[in-house]
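go over this chain:
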Amino acid sequence: MAQLYRQAGVPPWRTIWAEDGRTFFAGTASVGRLLDPYAGYLELIPRALGLAGHLVPLQDLAVYYAIAGAILTTICAAAVWRFTRQIVPSTVLRAVLALSVVLAPTMILEQLANGVNTIWAVAFAAWWAVVYRPDSNTDAAAPAAVVFLAVVSQALALTYAPVVAYNAWKRRERPTLLVAAAFTVGAFVQLVVMARATGDTLSGTHHFGDFPKIYGVRVLGSMLVSERRLGDVWTALGDTLPVLAALVAIGALVLLFRVAAARRGVAAVTVLYSVALYGLTLWGRGTVGLRIGTRYHSAGNRYASLSIWLLLSGLCILAANAGRRTRAVAIVVIAAQFAFVAFLGFRGAKPRSEASTWSDSLHTAAAQCARTRLPTATAPVVPRVRAFAVRVSCAELRREFASGAARRPRGEARPFP
Protein backbone atom coordinates (compact mmCIF):
# COMPACT_ATOMS: atom_id res chain seq x y z
CA MET A 1 0.00 0.00 0.00
CA ALA A 2 3.02 2.28 -0.44
CA GLN A 3 1.07 3.87 -3.32
CA LEU A 4 -1.05 5.74 -0.79
CA TYR A 5 2.01 7.57 0.53
CA ARG A 6 3.59 8.56 -2.77
CA GLN A 7 1.52 11.72 -3.14
CA ALA A 8 2.86 14.82 -1.39
CA GLY A 9 0.49 17.27 0.33
CA VAL A 10 -3.14 16.21 0.74
CA PRO A 11 -3.15 12.38 0.82
CA PRO A 12 -5.06 10.58 -1.97
CA TRP A 13 -7.59 9.07 0.45
CA ARG A 14 -9.00 12.55 1.11
CA THR A 15 -9.83 13.42 -2.52
CA ILE A 16 -11.63 11.87 -5.49
CA TRP A 17 -9.98 11.95 -8.91
CA ALA A 18 -11.66 13.04 -12.15
CA GLU A 19 -14.02 10.52 -13.79
CA ASP A 20 -14.28 8.48 -10.61
CA GLY A 21 -16.84 11.06 -9.49
CA ARG A 22 -19.52 11.92 -12.00
CA THR A 23 -18.85 9.30 -14.67
CA PHE A 24 -18.15 6.08 -12.81
CA PHE A 25 -19.71 6.68 -9.37
CA ALA A 26 -22.74 8.84 -10.07
CA GLY A 27 -22.99 7.39 -13.59
CA THR A 28 -23.12 3.77 -12.42
CA ALA A 29 -25.92 3.74 -9.90
CA SER A 30 -27.28 0.35 -11.01
CA VAL A 31 -26.12 -2.92 -12.56
CA GLY A 32 -27.81 -1.90 -15.80
CA ARG A 33 -25.24 0.88 -16.26
CA LEU A 34 -22.19 -1.41 -16.10
CA LEU A 35 -22.01 -1.73 -19.88
CA ASP A 36 -22.37 1.98 -20.61
CA PRO A 37 -19.51 3.26 -22.80
CA TYR A 38 -17.23 6.13 -21.93
CA ALA A 39 -14.73 7.84 -24.27
CA GLY A 40 -15.90 5.52 -27.03
CA TYR A 41 -15.43 2.15 -25.33
CA LEU A 42 -16.40 -0.02 -22.36
CA GLU A 43 -14.49 0.48 -19.10
CA LEU A 44 -15.96 -2.29 -16.97
CA ILE A 45 -13.52 -2.15 -14.05
CA PRO A 46 -14.07 1.57 -13.33
CA ARG A 47 -17.81 0.97 -13.75
CA ALA A 48 -17.75 -1.92 -11.28
CA LEU A 49 -15.74 0.10 -8.77
CA GLY A 50 -18.22 2.96 -9.16
CA LEU A 51 -21.17 0.66 -8.59
CA ALA A 52 -19.57 -0.82 -5.47
CA GLY A 53 -18.94 2.73 -4.23
CA HIS A 54 -22.66 3.07 -3.57
CA LEU A 55 -22.29 0.55 -0.76
CA VAL A 56 -20.14 2.91 1.35
CA PRO A 57 -21.19 6.19 3.00
CA LEU A 58 -20.59 9.30 0.89
CA GLN A 59 -18.10 10.58 3.46
CA ASP A 60 -15.95 7.47 2.94
CA LEU A 61 -16.04 7.51 -0.86
CA ALA A 62 -12.57 9.06 -1.22
CA VAL A 63 -11.07 6.49 1.15
CA TYR A 64 -12.83 3.69 -0.72
CA TYR A 65 -11.53 4.78 -4.12
CA ALA A 66 -7.95 5.25 -2.90
CA ILE A 67 -7.79 1.85 -1.23
CA ALA A 68 -9.66 0.01 -4.00
CA GLY A 69 -7.42 1.52 -6.67
CA ALA A 70 -4.26 0.70 -4.72
CA ILE A 71 -5.38 -2.87 -4.08
CA LEU A 72 -6.27 -3.49 -7.72
CA THR A 73 -2.92 -2.13 -8.91
CA THR A 74 -1.14 -4.33 -6.36
CA ILE A 75 -3.05 -7.35 -7.67
CA CYS A 76 -1.83 -6.45 -11.16
CA ALA A 77 1.75 -6.34 -9.83
CA ALA A 78 1.25 -9.81 -8.32
CA ALA A 79 -0.12 -11.05 -11.65
CA VAL A 80 2.94 -9.73 -13.47
CA TRP A 81 5.17 -11.48 -10.93
CA ARG A 82 3.38 -14.77 -11.58
CA PHE A 83 3.09 -14.60 -15.36
CA THR A 84 6.74 -13.63 -15.94
CA ARG A 85 8.22 -16.76 -14.36
CA GLN A 86 8.48 -18.68 -17.65
CA ILE A 87 10.00 -16.01 -19.86
CA VAL A 88 12.04 -14.03 -17.33
CA PRO A 89 14.04 -16.64 -15.37
CA SER A 90 15.54 -14.05 -13.04
CA THR A 91 14.01 -13.34 -9.66
CA VAL A 92 15.56 -9.86 -9.63
CA LEU A 93 14.15 -8.86 -13.00
CA ARG A 94 10.74 -10.34 -12.22
CA ALA A 95 10.73 -8.22 -9.08
CA VAL A 96 11.67 -5.16 -11.16
CA LEU A 97 8.72 -5.73 -13.50
CA ALA A 98 6.26 -6.37 -10.68
CA LEU A 99 7.43 -3.40 -8.61
CA SER A 100 7.33 -1.13 -11.65
CA VAL A 101 3.53 -1.51 -11.66
CA VAL A 102 3.28 0.29 -8.32
CA LEU A 103 6.48 2.39 -8.32
CA ALA A 104 6.61 3.87 -11.84
CA PRO A 105 7.23 7.63 -11.45
CA THR A 106 4.71 8.36 -14.23
CA MET A 107 1.91 7.06 -12.00
CA ILE A 108 1.87 9.99 -9.59
CA LEU A 109 0.01 12.48 -11.79
CA GLU A 110 -3.00 10.41 -12.89
CA GLN A 111 -2.79 6.76 -11.85
CA LEU A 112 -2.19 6.86 -8.13
CA ALA A 113 -4.90 5.46 -5.84
CA ASN A 114 -7.96 5.90 -8.05
CA GLY A 115 -10.34 3.68 -9.95
CA VAL A 116 -10.48 5.05 -13.47
CA ASN A 117 -6.79 4.68 -14.34
CA THR A 118 -6.33 1.16 -12.97
CA ILE A 119 -7.11 0.04 -16.52
CA TRP A 120 -3.52 0.79 -17.57
CA ALA A 121 -2.01 -1.56 -14.99
CA VAL A 122 -4.59 -4.20 -15.92
CA ALA A 123 -3.65 -3.83 -19.59
CA PHE A 124 0.02 -4.44 -18.73
CA ALA A 125 -0.80 -7.48 -16.60
CA ALA A 126 -2.90 -8.75 -19.51
CA TRP A 127 0.09 -8.58 -21.85
CA TRP A 128 1.94 -10.99 -19.61
CA ALA A 129 -1.20 -13.11 -19.25
CA VAL A 130 -1.33 -13.38 -23.05
CA VAL A 131 2.29 -14.52 -23.47
CA TYR A 132 2.12 -16.84 -20.44
CA ARG A 133 1.73 -20.56 -21.21
CA PRO A 134 -0.57 -22.23 -18.66
CA ASP A 135 0.17 -25.89 -18.01
CA SER A 136 -3.34 -26.92 -16.90
CA ASN A 137 -6.93 -25.76 -17.02
CA THR A 138 -6.65 -24.63 -13.41
CA ASP A 139 -3.48 -22.70 -14.22
CA ALA A 140 -5.32 -20.99 -17.09
CA ALA A 141 -7.99 -19.50 -14.79
CA ALA A 142 -5.93 -16.52 -13.61
CA PRO A 143 -4.57 -15.40 -17.02
CA ALA A 144 -8.01 -15.92 -18.58
CA ALA A 145 -9.62 -13.69 -15.94
CA VAL A 146 -6.98 -10.98 -16.33
CA VAL A 147 -7.25 -11.03 -20.14
CA PHE A 148 -11.06 -10.83 -20.05
CA LEU A 149 -11.11 -7.93 -17.58
CA ALA A 150 -8.46 -6.07 -19.55
CA VAL A 151 -10.28 -6.37 -22.87
CA VAL A 152 -13.61 -5.20 -21.41
CA SER A 153 -11.94 -2.30 -19.59
CA GLN A 154 -9.28 -0.99 -21.96
CA ALA A 155 -9.84 -0.94 -25.72
CA LEU A 156 -6.08 -0.97 -26.39
CA ALA A 157 -6.00 -4.57 -25.14
CA LEU A 158 -7.85 -5.54 -28.32
CA THR A 159 -4.54 -5.09 -30.13
CA TYR A 160 -3.25 -8.21 -28.35
CA ALA A 161 -5.45 -10.28 -30.67
CA PRO A 162 -2.65 -11.29 -33.10
CA VAL A 163 -0.52 -12.62 -30.23
CA VAL A 164 -3.50 -14.46 -28.73
CA ALA A 165 -4.34 -16.02 -32.10
CA TYR A 166 -0.71 -16.99 -32.78
CA ASN A 167 -0.32 -18.69 -29.40
CA ALA A 168 -3.60 -20.57 -29.80
CA TRP A 169 -2.57 -21.79 -33.26
CA LYS A 170 0.98 -22.71 -32.31
CA ARG A 171 0.32 -24.40 -28.97
CA ARG A 172 -3.10 -25.94 -29.63
CA GLU A 173 -3.43 -26.84 -25.96
CA ARG A 174 -6.65 -26.62 -23.98
CA PRO A 175 -5.28 -24.22 -21.30
CA THR A 176 -4.06 -21.78 -23.96
CA LEU A 177 -7.35 -22.10 -25.82
CA LEU A 178 -9.21 -21.23 -22.62
CA VAL A 179 -7.25 -17.97 -22.39
CA ALA A 180 -7.96 -17.31 -26.07
CA ALA A 181 -11.66 -17.98 -25.46
CA ALA A 182 -11.73 -15.50 -22.57
CA PHE A 183 -10.09 -12.92 -24.81
CA THR A 184 -12.60 -13.61 -27.60
CA VAL A 185 -15.63 -13.24 -25.33
CA GLY A 186 -14.25 -10.02 -23.85
CA ALA A 187 -13.42 -8.68 -27.30
CA PHE A 188 -16.93 -9.41 -28.53
CA VAL A 189 -18.48 -7.53 -25.60
CA GLN A 190 -16.08 -4.61 -26.06
CA LEU A 191 -16.69 -4.35 -29.80
CA VAL A 192 -20.47 -4.42 -29.34
CA VAL A 193 -20.26 -1.56 -26.84
CA MET A 194 -17.87 0.37 -29.07
CA ALA A 195 -20.22 -0.04 -32.03
CA ARG A 196 -22.98 1.82 -30.18
CA ALA A 197 -20.67 4.49 -28.72
CA THR A 198 -20.03 6.51 -31.88
CA GLY A 199 -21.24 9.77 -30.34
CA ASP A 200 -19.03 9.26 -27.29
CA THR A 201 -15.69 8.77 -29.04
CA LEU A 202 -12.87 11.13 -28.16
CA SER A 203 -10.51 12.32 -30.87
CA GLY A 204 -7.83 14.95 -31.22
CA THR A 205 -5.58 16.57 -33.78
CA HIS A 206 -2.47 14.57 -34.52
CA HIS A 207 0.67 15.05 -36.59
CA PHE A 208 3.05 12.21 -37.46
CA GLY A 209 6.08 14.41 -36.91
CA ASP A 210 5.22 14.90 -33.24
CA PHE A 211 5.52 11.23 -32.32
CA PRO A 212 9.32 10.67 -32.19
CA LYS A 213 9.91 13.64 -29.90
CA ILE A 214 6.95 12.89 -27.61
CA TYR A 215 7.90 9.21 -27.32
CA GLY A 216 11.57 10.06 -26.88
CA VAL A 217 10.86 12.43 -24.00
CA ARG A 218 7.77 11.03 -22.26
CA VAL A 219 8.70 7.34 -22.51
CA LEU A 220 12.47 7.03 -23.01
CA GLY A 221 13.43 10.19 -21.11
CA SER A 222 11.19 9.29 -18.19
CA MET A 223 12.75 5.82 -18.01
CA LEU A 224 16.23 7.34 -17.77
CA VAL A 225 15.81 10.22 -15.33
CA SER A 226 12.34 9.70 -13.76
CA GLU A 227 9.27 11.79 -14.37
CA ARG A 228 10.05 13.99 -11.38
CA ARG A 229 13.39 15.18 -12.84
CA LEU A 230 12.36 15.13 -16.48
CA GLY A 231 11.42 18.82 -16.53
CA ASP A 232 14.84 19.89 -15.26
CA VAL A 233 16.63 17.69 -17.79
CA TRP A 234 14.39 18.97 -20.58
CA THR A 235 15.17 22.56 -19.63
CA ALA A 236 18.88 21.79 -19.71
CA LEU A 237 19.03 19.69 -22.88
CA GLY A 238 15.94 20.58 -24.92
CA ASP A 239 15.63 18.64 -28.18
CA THR A 240 18.90 16.86 -27.42
CA LEU A 241 17.13 14.82 -24.72
CA PRO A 242 14.97 12.60 -26.97
CA VAL A 243 17.95 11.98 -29.25
CA LEU A 244 20.20 10.92 -26.38
CA ALA A 245 17.44 8.83 -24.81
CA ALA A 246 16.77 7.08 -28.13
CA LEU A 247 20.48 6.32 -28.59
CA VAL A 248 20.70 4.81 -25.11
CA ALA A 249 17.55 2.71 -25.60
CA ILE A 250 18.54 1.50 -29.08
CA GLY A 251 22.07 0.76 -27.94
CA ALA A 252 20.84 -1.29 -24.98
CA LEU A 253 18.38 -3.22 -27.14
CA VAL A 254 20.92 -4.00 -29.86
CA LEU A 255 23.49 -5.16 -27.31
CA LEU A 256 21.00 -7.36 -25.47
CA PHE A 257 19.61 -8.83 -28.70
CA ARG A 258 23.14 -9.89 -29.63
CA VAL A 259 23.84 -11.63 -26.33
CA ALA A 260 20.39 -13.12 -25.70
CA ALA A 261 20.34 -16.88 -26.16
CA ALA A 262 16.56 -17.25 -26.23
CA ARG A 263 13.22 -15.40 -26.21
CA ARG A 264 14.35 -12.79 -28.69
CA GLY A 265 11.12 -13.07 -30.63
CA VAL A 266 8.80 -12.32 -27.71
CA ALA A 267 11.15 -9.53 -26.61
CA ALA A 268 11.02 -7.92 -30.05
CA VAL A 269 7.22 -8.12 -30.17
CA THR A 270 6.98 -6.61 -26.66
CA VAL A 271 9.19 -3.67 -27.64
CA LEU A 272 7.20 -3.13 -30.84
CA TYR A 273 4.01 -3.00 -28.79
CA SER A 274 5.59 -0.35 -26.58
CA VAL A 275 6.02 1.89 -29.60
CA ALA A 276 2.86 0.90 -31.47
CA LEU A 277 0.45 1.31 -28.55
CA TYR A 278 1.80 4.74 -27.74
CA GLY A 279 1.43 5.72 -31.37
CA LEU A 280 -2.11 4.33 -31.49
CA THR A 281 -3.03 6.25 -28.34
CA LEU A 282 -1.67 9.50 -29.75
CA TRP A 283 -3.51 8.86 -33.00
CA GLY A 284 -6.80 8.66 -31.15
CA ARG A 285 -6.22 11.31 -28.48
CA GLY A 286 -4.15 13.72 -30.54
CA THR A 287 -0.54 14.85 -30.30
CA VAL A 288 -1.16 18.58 -29.91
CA GLY A 289 -1.98 18.42 -26.21
CA LEU A 290 1.14 16.34 -25.50
CA ARG A 291 3.59 18.55 -27.37
CA ILE A 292 6.45 19.86 -25.25
CA GLY A 293 7.37 23.52 -25.51
CA THR A 294 9.96 25.51 -23.64
CA ARG A 295 8.69 24.04 -20.37
CA TYR A 296 7.94 20.38 -19.78
CA HIS A 297 4.45 19.34 -18.66
CA SER A 298 3.32 15.90 -17.54
CA ALA A 299 0.09 15.66 -19.51
CA GLY A 300 -0.99 12.18 -20.56
CA ASN A 301 1.33 10.27 -18.23
CA ARG A 302 -1.05 7.34 -18.16
CA TYR A 303 -0.34 6.79 -21.85
CA ALA A 304 3.41 6.69 -21.23
CA SER A 305 3.18 4.23 -18.33
CA LEU A 306 2.01 1.29 -20.44
CA SER A 307 4.73 1.88 -23.04
CA ILE A 308 7.38 2.18 -20.32
CA TRP A 309 6.25 -1.09 -18.75
CA LEU A 310 6.35 -2.86 -22.12
CA LEU A 311 9.77 -1.50 -23.08
CA LEU A 312 11.14 -2.42 -19.66
CA SER A 313 9.66 -5.90 -20.17
CA GLY A 314 11.50 -6.28 -23.47
CA LEU A 315 14.79 -5.32 -21.84
CA CYS A 316 14.20 -7.70 -18.94
CA ILE A 317 13.34 -10.60 -21.26
CA LEU A 318 16.57 -10.16 -23.19
CA ALA A 319 18.74 -9.63 -20.09
CA ALA A 320 17.29 -12.66 -18.29
CA ASN A 321 17.99 -14.88 -21.30
CA ALA A 322 21.47 -13.54 -22.07
CA GLY A 323 24.59 -15.64 -21.97
CA ARG A 324 26.02 -16.43 -18.56
CA ARG A 325 28.84 -13.88 -18.74
CA THR A 326 26.70 -10.92 -19.65
CA ARG A 327 23.51 -11.89 -17.82
CA ALA A 328 24.70 -10.86 -14.37
CA VAL A 329 25.97 -7.50 -15.60
CA ALA A 330 22.76 -6.78 -17.53
CA ILE A 331 20.61 -7.69 -14.52
CA VAL A 332 22.59 -5.43 -12.21
CA VAL A 333 22.44 -2.50 -14.65
CA ILE A 334 18.67 -2.79 -15.25
CA ALA A 335 17.89 -3.28 -11.56
CA ALA A 336 20.13 -0.38 -10.53
CA GLN A 337 18.61 1.94 -13.14
CA PHE A 338 15.10 1.02 -12.06
CA ALA A 339 15.96 1.54 -8.39
CA PHE A 340 17.49 4.93 -9.21
CA VAL A 341 14.44 6.12 -11.15
CA ALA A 342 11.97 4.68 -8.62
CA PHE A 343 13.80 6.40 -5.77
CA LEU A 344 13.87 9.77 -7.53
CA GLY A 345 10.23 9.57 -8.48
CA PHE A 346 8.77 7.79 -5.46
CA ARG A 347 7.05 10.85 -4.02
CA GLY A 348 5.80 13.97 -5.72
CA ALA A 349 3.11 16.62 -5.97
CA LYS A 350 0.13 16.66 -8.33
CA PRO A 351 -3.17 18.58 -8.61
CA ARG A 352 -4.61 16.46 -5.78
CA SER A 353 -1.77 17.55 -3.49
CA GLU A 354 -3.25 21.02 -2.90
CA ALA A 355 -6.91 20.34 -3.61
CA SER A 356 -9.89 20.73 -1.35
CA THR A 357 -10.82 17.49 0.35
CA TRP A 358 -13.88 15.36 -0.36
CA SER A 359 -15.16 16.32 3.09
CA ASP A 360 -14.95 19.99 2.07
CA SER A 361 -16.84 19.15 -1.12
CA LEU A 362 -19.64 17.48 0.82
CA HIS A 363 -19.96 20.54 3.06
CA THR A 364 -20.10 22.74 -0.02
CA ALA A 365 -22.88 20.57 -1.42
CA ALA A 366 -24.72 20.53 1.91
CA ALA A 367 -24.61 24.33 2.07
CA GLN A 368 -26.00 24.43 -1.46
CA CYS A 369 -28.84 22.12 -0.41
CA ALA A 370 -29.71 24.35 2.53
CA ARG A 371 -29.57 27.48 0.38
CA THR A 372 -31.52 26.31 -2.68
CA ARG A 373 -33.80 23.64 -1.23
CA LEU A 374 -33.24 21.55 -4.39
CA PRO A 375 -33.21 17.71 -4.25
CA THR A 376 -29.57 17.47 -5.38
CA ALA A 377 -26.38 19.50 -5.13
CA THR A 378 -22.93 19.52 -6.72
CA ALA A 379 -19.86 18.15 -4.91
CA PRO A 380 -16.60 19.11 -6.67
CA VAL A 381 -13.76 16.62 -7.20
CA VAL A 382 -10.19 16.98 -8.54
CA PRO A 383 -9.65 18.59 -11.02
CA ARG A 384 -12.34 21.08 -10.12
CA VAL A 385 -14.21 21.14 -13.42
CA ARG A 386 -17.94 20.80 -13.96
CA ALA A 387 -17.64 17.63 -16.04
CA PHE A 388 -16.24 15.67 -13.08
CA ALA A 389 -18.35 17.07 -10.22
CA VAL A 390 -20.72 14.64 -8.49
CA ARG A 391 -24.44 15.24 -8.16
CA VAL A 392 -25.35 14.09 -4.66
CA SER A 393 -28.72 13.66 -3.00
CA CYS A 394 -29.56 16.34 -0.44
CA ALA A 395 -31.63 13.79 1.48
CA GLU A 396 -28.62 11.50 1.76
CA LEU A 397 -26.44 14.39 2.87
CA ARG A 398 -28.98 15.30 5.55
CA ARG A 399 -28.92 11.75 6.86
CA GLU A 400 -25.13 11.65 7.01
CA PHE A 401 -24.85 15.01 8.73
CA ALA A 402 -27.63 14.12 11.12
CA SER A 403 -25.90 10.86 12.05
CA GLY A 404 -22.56 12.61 12.50
CA ALA A 405 -20.95 10.57 9.70
CA ALA A 406 -20.01 13.71 7.76
CA ARG A 407 -17.48 15.61 9.83
CA ARG A 408 -17.34 19.35 9.22
CA PRO A 409 -14.07 21.32 9.03
CA ARG A 410 -13.03 23.06 12.23
CA GLY A 411 -14.76 26.40 12.74
CA GLU A 412 -17.34 25.88 10.00
CA ALA A 413 -21.01 26.34 10.80
CA ARG A 414 -23.46 23.51 10.29
CA PRO A 415 -24.62 23.43 6.62
CA PHE A 416 -28.17 22.44 7.57
CA PRO A 417 -30.33 24.39 10.01
Observations:
- Strands lie at 37-38, 41-42, 376-379, 390-393.
